[in-house]
Amino acid sequence: MRVPRGNWGEIAGKQFSPFAFLSRSQIQLPAPTSWQTARMLTTALLCLVVGISDGDTLTARCGKPGSYEQVKVRLSAIDAPEARQPFGQRSKQNLADLCFQVEATITPRTTDRYGRTVADVTCHGLDAAQHQVATGMAWYYVQYGRGYEDLREIEATARSSKLGLWRDLNPIPPWDWRATARAQRQTRQQGPT
Fold it and tell me: For residues 94 and 13, what is the distance between their CA atoms, to the nearest angstrom?
């Protein structure tokens, strides 16, 4: 089966195909005109990763030459430490080492409340979410992890091996970290009682 590809280009001395579509049903589809159309067709997109926000969020450039769209992508089913949280910067660097300036396969799943595309992302043939969890740089996000239960075992292995954030005596999950930060902000805003 022939996979349609966009024109090859070069960025920072690396060759890449800025856009390729892979149909889940292996049917050759015409190139969607936008990221939204691609999401509706549930195709996997081949995009260039141009930014890493943290250990579970990246920015990818998708589209045809001259009509690129930048897309903010949240990795499915994981939650990485926040920037100011222990291991936050290491988690971000770990994802960057795997995906930054790399052609990634992005399979959109949904959109989160912040408008980010939640997707499965593969870089260098590795599932980025599995990589982050396996190296101890993210938690399996049970609340949003239906269909990704394999991450539970991967996390257990990283935890028992004391990899990454599991070296910490009492690692705080990011959802608890955010809840504590929210409560502290509310307390400051209310002032003394």
Answer: 22
